[in-house]
Amino acid sequence: MTASQxxxxxxxxxxxxxxxxxxxxxxxxxxLSKIESGKARLTVEIAVRLAGILHVPASxxxxxxAPQALARRSITPxxxxxIHQNPGMRLEVLCSDFKxxxxxxxxxxxTATSVEDCGGMRQHPGQEFLFILSGKLEIHTAFYxxxxxxxxxSILFDADQPHAYVAPDGPCELLMMNTISMG
Length: 183
Prior knowledge:
Blueprint: H1 3-13, H2 18-25, H3 29-36, H4 44-54, E1 83-86, E2 89-94, E3 103-110, E4 127-134, E5 137-141, E6 147-149, E7 154-158, E8 163-166, E9 172-179
Antiparallel strand pairs: 1-2, 2-3, 3-9, 4-7, 4-9, 5-6, 5-8
Keywords: DNA-binding
Protein name: Transcriptional regulator
Organism: Mesorhizobium kowhaii
């Protein structure tokens, strides 16, 4: 399923009209229609907004193949990334200006004190890598007992298993990378 098909599918699944979704995302219905039909380019910023409204991972909308390119780089100056707010979690999109969308990078502040505070377990295609910068993060997954990660710890796991993040001692800052399966 293409990114544009995935947006339409998620919108229809949640019974949201094109006009209503466009309005909430701050774009015209015409622009959203063009994105859904593949006639307009989907930016990471719009993908993140739509994902937040539809309560799905942005990675669902960013599955397109990378172009062949050499000597590219992407810089996100401190505190300038697009912010995406989920229950119990604030995500800042990092280094998002490449057309390649097989990896998504985030600076995350987890604040949920329970699985319920973060909206319950979530899952998405691909793998997820976390590196703890400060605080403690308790990771809950469907197939393993909860595990507490501390500064300097990292974890890589298959993100299609339901998972959730809890910050038992207050805010936890971490770096997150989502690797999207192209399968």
